[in-house]
């Protein structure tokens, strides 16, 4: 639990620091008469899968004025029936989207989103209790994971948001990812594992507000 609290505190501090470094009039498309407060999240999201929980929800921040670099903070849940024990996951994702392709007046495609994530799981059966196993019995952490992600996003442009004057964005996305344990396991057993065996799939929705 101490790791979970520390993780959430560090993720929140990092997001607030990044937002504080960008003044409201720095080109984020904010209206000077009603700026979006630097500490206020810019979007909410809900997803399933991706190694971050059967269901995960959270909020995020735009980290630059081009709005193509984001930090998302999520809390996920896995019922005991599926996880062996009830699992709570705290995760942070940093995602970069280099291109936006207009499809129509109301639709745009982000053909590539790439990033990294870190997650901490509370409630695992093998939770690294002191003295539970002999030294080096497990070479990997049982409750922390990190790894890369690649995906894509389709965005609907709705009516303008009062606080920013920018179109409200409602996006559906997918992300393919892996983690440190899966990648190392594959590197040592390429004949027994395929690339598909080490990939996770996340499906989600993201809404600006």
DSSP strand tally: 9
Major sheet summary line: 8 strands, antiparallel, barrel
Tell me, briefly, the overall form: elongated
Rg over C-alpha atoms, rounded to the nearest angstrom: 19 Å
Number of DSSP helical runs = 3
**Strand order in the sheet with the most strands:** 1-2-3-4-6-7-8-9
Mean pLDDT: 82
Poorly predicted tracts of residues: 20-34
Strand content: 35-45%
If you consult CATH, what is the topology? Porin
The CATH C-level class name: Mainly Beta
From the N-terminal CA to the C-terminal CA, the straight-line distance is: 31 Å
How many structural domains can be distinguished in the coordinates?
1
CATH architecture, by name, is Beta Barrel
Which class best fits the helix and strand makeup?
A: mainly beta
> SSE order, as H and E?
HEEEHEEEEEHE
Helix content: 10-25%
Condensed summary:
With 209 residues, the chain is mainly β.
Give your account of this protein's structure:
The protein is mainly beta. It has one domain: Beta Barrel (Porin), CATH 2.40.160. 15% of the residues lie in helices and 43% in strands. The protein has three helices and nine strands; from the N terminus they run αβββαβββββαβ. Strands 1-2-3-4-6-7-8-9 form an eight-stranded antiparallel β-barrel. It is elongated. The two termini are 31 Å apart.
């Amino acid at each position: 639990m101490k790791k979970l609290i520390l993780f959430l505190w560090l993720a929140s501090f990092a997001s607030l620091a990044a937002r504080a470094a960008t003044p409201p009039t720095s080109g984020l498309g904010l209206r000077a008469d009603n700026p979006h407060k630097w500490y206020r999240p810019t979007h909410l999201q809900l997803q399933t899968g991706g190694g971050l929980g059967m269901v995960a929800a959270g909020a995020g921040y735009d980290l630059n004025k081009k709005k193509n670099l984001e930090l998302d903070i999520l809390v996920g849940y896995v019922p005991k029936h599926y996880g062996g024990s009830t699992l709570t996951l705290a995760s942070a994702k940093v995602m970069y989207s280099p291109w936006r392709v207009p499809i129509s007046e109301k639709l745009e495609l982000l053909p590539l989103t790439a990033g990294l994530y870190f997650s901490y799981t509370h409630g695992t059966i093998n939770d690294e209790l002191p003295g539970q196993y002999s030294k080096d019995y497990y070479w990997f952490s049982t409750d922390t994971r990190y790894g890369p992600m690649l995906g894509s996003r389709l965005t609907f442009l709705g009516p303008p948001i009062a606080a920013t004057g920018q179109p409200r964005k409602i996006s559906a996305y997918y992300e393919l990812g892996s983690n440190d344990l899966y990648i190392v396991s594959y590197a040592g057993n390429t004949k027994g594992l395929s690339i598909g065996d080490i990939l996770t799939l996340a499906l989600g929705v993201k809404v600006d507000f």
